[in-house]
Amino acid sequence: MSETHAQEAAPAPKRRGPGRPSKGERHPHMVRFPVKLYERLQADAEAAGYKKGEFSDYVIAACKAALESKGPDSDGHRYAQST
């Protein structure tokens, strides 16, 4: 294969289109909530002004607030602030 052909065959770099700005590196994790808990979280998220597509943001914020209220971890570290 010629060098020119190899360059043509390379995939195009991924371009970011319009949309929300990145929230930084994340680790994906699927969660299955008990039905009653899910309903409560949805109601709380709506009451807090979160839109339907922002449910995960609300759950993460609620978990983070709960962890931060406990203080530093066993190594004395505070939980990381989101960027």
Task: Name the structural class.
Answer: mainly alpha
Uncertain runs are: none
> Total strand count, please?
0
Oligomer: single chain
Q: How much helix, percentage-wise, in residues? A: 40-55%
Mean pLDDT across every amino acid position: 80
Enumerate how many helices there are, as a single number.
3
Rg from Cα: 20 Å
Q: Kindly estimate the percentage of residues that lie in beta strands according to DSSP.
A: under 5%
| Terminal-residue CA separation | 45 Å
Series of secondary-structure elements, N-terminal to C-terminal: HHH
Largest sheet: none
Broad shape:
extended
Describe this structure in words.
The protein has 3 helices and no strands. With 83 residues, the chain is mainly α. It has helices at 3-9, 35-47, 55-69. The N and C termini lie far apart (45 Å). The chain has a domain at 33-72. Helix content is 42%, strand content 0%. It is extended, with a radius of gyration of 20 Å. The model has no long low-confidence stretch (mean pLDDT 80).
